[in-house]
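Help needed: design a sequence for this.
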């Protein structure tokens, strides 16, 4: 690895124990939990090196206790061309074109005095299993989503191969609402939207991710036993590796700043002006986007509910509309009136923990869903793709702590869902259920709790290498 092909390592000396190398996927929803996991393991006397792409690179100044090593050839001009709409192609590029650079980085680290005891990668870096095998380096996989969604990923290729979805039409109401055999929490219409744009290519990625997970020494999950105990039992049949359920990660420490976006702290001062349990928080994460027509339906649904709301409208999240066009003619302000407050990005964990927050309208990314559960906030679910479909069904139909919008973005259904959750008895029942899960979270992280014990087991396992 010559000096012209790599940037300078950002390194801080550490007197901690043996070194772990962590490799996150370059998306906000994957970087956050990996850095949280790094903090957890650092607290257990491991030294941490973060191996990362230059595309969506984490900010080393927020983590002075870690070493950061960028992977050569992964700058924005190489990877940003794929865009948020082509995640599958980006995953294939990362796994097919970056392995030599990653191998060079690992060899370099292994030759240093501190060495490397273990490589921990996002499960979507599936090709790193071969690299780890060649270097005789133990590899542990970190899954950034739920066990339930992993089951759906494992099953997806076989359903596609057998032609199960052939002839399916979204307007076939009877079939669309039928349950998927063997995955009874999911409806057929959910399964067909997991990877709607390129299901064949998605299958290849899923099959390789599944194989890479099966061959790994172990799997670390950002979930907790009390939430997914039955799903874990099913998982153990096909994946006999050790499984360590040590989540929710973000509850171990005060929130650290790993956001790729600037957080608008006026969100909190605005919430301070509202009484307890009175505000709906709306945010669809760092990737999901909506059409202009869907955005306007959202605005009308929010306005018609007559409930206060804090709405995150991320720049670029409205397809075909520039940011300045959103507010240029004042039309949006006329729709939402004075009840709504719009920001580009919010400090989500603080918002969900705020006494004024009553409910969360979400895309059901796993981090967002866990954060909502941890603060006892029921959800309105608008999943877009991937694991979000499974998570939404579990929120609505299994855990019964939220409402799934079945018809996309339709102002009448939005209005009804908001009132259901914030004003009606059913919403109170959902709040009570999610508050019960919040209590289980608090217990599982204490000494003797399931996540606490699983973390101790993980540390012992790594030290056995």
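Sure. Designed sequence:
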């Amino acid at each position: 690895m010559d000096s012209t092909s790599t940037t300078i390592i950002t390194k801080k000396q550490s007197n901690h124990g043996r070194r772990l190398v962590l490799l996150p996927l370059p998306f906000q929803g994957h970087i956050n939990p990996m850095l949280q996991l790094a903090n957890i393991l650092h607290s257990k006397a491991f030294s941490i090196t973060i191996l990362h792409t230059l595309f969506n690179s984490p900010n080393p100044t927020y983590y002075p206790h870690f070493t950061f090593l960028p992977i050569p050839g992964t700058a924005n001009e190489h990877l940003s061309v794929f865009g948020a709409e082509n995640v599958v192609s980006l995953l294939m590029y990362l796994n097919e074109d970056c392995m030599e650079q990653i191998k060079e980085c690992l060899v370099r680290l292994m030759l240093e005095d501190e060495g490397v005891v273990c490589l921990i990668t996002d499960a979507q870096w599936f090709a790193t299993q071969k690299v780890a095998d060649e270097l005789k380096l133990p590899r542990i996989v970190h899954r950034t989503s739920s066990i339930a969604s992993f089951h759906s990923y494992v099953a997806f290729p076989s359903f596609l191969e057998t032609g199960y979805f052939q002839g399916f039409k979204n307007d076939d109401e009877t079939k669309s609402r039928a349950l998927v055999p063997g995955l009874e929490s999911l409806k057929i219409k959910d399964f067909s939207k997991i990877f709607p744009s390129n299901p064949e290519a998605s299958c290849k990625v899923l099959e390789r991710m599944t194989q890479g997970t099966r061959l790994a020494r172990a799997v670390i999950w950002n979930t907790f036993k009390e939430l997914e105990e039955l799903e874990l039992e099913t998982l153990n049949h096909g994946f006999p590796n050790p499984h360590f359920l040590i989540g929710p990660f973000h509850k171990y420490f005060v929130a650290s700043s790993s956001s790729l976006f600037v957080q608008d702290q006026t969100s909190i001062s605005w919430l301070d002006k509202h009484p307890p349990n009175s505000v709906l928080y709306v945010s669809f994460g760092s990737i999901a986007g909506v059409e202009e027509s869907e955005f306007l339906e959202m605005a009308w649904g929010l306005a018609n509910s007559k409930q206060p709301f804090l709405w995150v409208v991320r720049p670029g999240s409205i397809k075909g509309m520039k940011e300045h066009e959103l507010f240029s003619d004042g039309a949006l302000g006329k729709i939402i009136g004075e009840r709504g407050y719009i920001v580009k990005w919010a400090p989500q964990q603080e918002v969900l923990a705020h006494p004024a927050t009553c409910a969360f309208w979400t895309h059901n990314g796993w981090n967002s869903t866990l954060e909502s559960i941890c603060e006892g906030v029921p959800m309105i679910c608008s999943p877009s793709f991937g694991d979000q479909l499974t998570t939404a069904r579990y929120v609505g139909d299994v855990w019964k702590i939220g409402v799934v919008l079945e018809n996309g973005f339709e102002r009448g259904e939005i209005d009804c869902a908001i009132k259901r959750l914030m004003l009606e008895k059913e919403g109170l029942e959902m709040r009570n259920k999610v508050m019960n899960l919040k209590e289980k979270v608090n217990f599982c992280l204490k000494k003797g709790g399931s996540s606490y014990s699983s973390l101790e087991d993980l540390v012992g396992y790594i030290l056995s290498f």
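Residues 425-444 form the longest helix (20 residues).
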